[in-house]
Give the backbone structure.
Amino acid sequence: QVQLVESGGGVVQPGGSLRLSCVASENIFNFNKMGWFRQAPGKEREWVASITVGGTTDYVDHAKGRFTIARDGARKMVYLQIDSLKPEDTAVYYCSARLLNRNYWGQGTQVTVSA
């Protein structure tokens, strides 16, 4: 069974940076696509970034310029670098993977941006 585990969240001041990590249970190049979503309390889950098996990246419009998705196949990991953090970035961030028309999710890591 596919398993994804996120880490790297925490409490940071506005303007700071975080790098979130996601380790997969298998070769990440087995997946059609990987990415990151986030969900704030009382709000719907929102897609923020993705990367295809070929390395093509994409971001939600309001994340462009601050969010960067990257991967390390040897370590079976995907990362999300977030710069210039804002209070509205506060959410649980989830790693995702697509395999054979099925989506998998990690347990999430909490990011809190507060002065």
In short: The chain is about 0% helix and 55% strand.
